[in-house]
Amino acid sequence: xxxxxxxxxxxxxVEVKEAVERGGGWEIEVEVALPGRCAxxxxxxxxxxxxxxxxxxHLWIGVEAVHLNWLPKRGVCQQCGKTVVTRPANxxxxxxxxxxxxxxxxxxxxxxxxxxxxxxxxxxxxxxxRLVDRTVPxxxxxxxxxxxxxxxxxxxxSFRGTDLMITIALRSPLKRLLTILPDDRMASLTxxxxxxPEEVRGRIRVVTTDLKESYRKVFAKHCPTAVVVPDPFHxxxxxxxxxxxxxxxxxxxxxxxxxxxxxxxxxxKLSLPQHGQxxxxxxDYPTLAALYALKEDFRTLLQEPDPAQxxxxxxxxxxxxxxxxxxxxxxxxxxxxxxxxxxxxHWYTARRWTNGYIEGLHTKxxxxxxxxxxxxxRDRYRKKMLLAFLPASSPHSY
Length: 398
Fold this sequence. Notes:
With 398 residues, the chain is an alpha/beta fold. Helix content is 46%, strand content 20%. The longest helix is centred in the middle third of the chain and has 23 residues.
């Protein structure tokens, strides 16, 4: 029976003496033997002293834990005097889990919190935290070997409250979370870029980002071959935000509510009652009407397939924004003019790059953070999040 159990439990090459079901789990008794010769000098090894029995976690079958038990044997080389202690499954002296048990725990930790996995596996949360600290890298650099032009996405997310961290993802030719920086300072982003080999930096062609001007300055300085492209969603959202701010000001002045949805929703999504409300708003409030027209004209511009026509429409849009009688129109014109080259790059490539992928990563990160009830250790938080996104091709994937 022991011979049949060994391959099932991943114990090939280990002498299994017996398997006993005990206390809702299995205890596997294995035999370890002293080597005849010292691995260092080849001298003869003889037994020396006695050691207490050892027990480590090896596997989980459903909710039942499988433990390995053995009696360690200690020997001393007669030639070099080196002490040899036998243990199975390539265990280190300090390990309380076999490599197979560690892989099972890391797979579970990709989706669950430390405490939830500890309860399921019968381990301690502290041991799982140490496992992540020891095995998960802060950055998987295997993407350096990916051939071809590279497209990156950069954005920030909240670590705790207003404490932000920068997220960097690879958008093309593969989709992959690259790293999470410890804060949102541009010095950290600059340091990360400087660590990249010059050949890798030279292959970065496009960087998608939100409307943070400092990102564009950092990449312009350290990746001059890259075009920093603003995410169109953030541009439309900024226009919508300004429009809604003006609506609230008008509302406070007249002390009467002005419907919000007819202004902030896309024209094609309005219901018939909202169309009627929009007509009344544009008739009674010229400022809101002008800003709403700018927003919708810009949304129409983004749908234009022809690059030349898009450039003409953008020039006309800037002219209309500059001729607006209200300061908000000039603010929008300055914003678009600042990002004009990057915006037009959307039409110069076969694909319009956006921040959609990295925003999806942030959704999963928020879910993992919520199930863990937050973190206090920055590096452990970064490793726990990166563990959930390690690609199957990575040497550190589980």
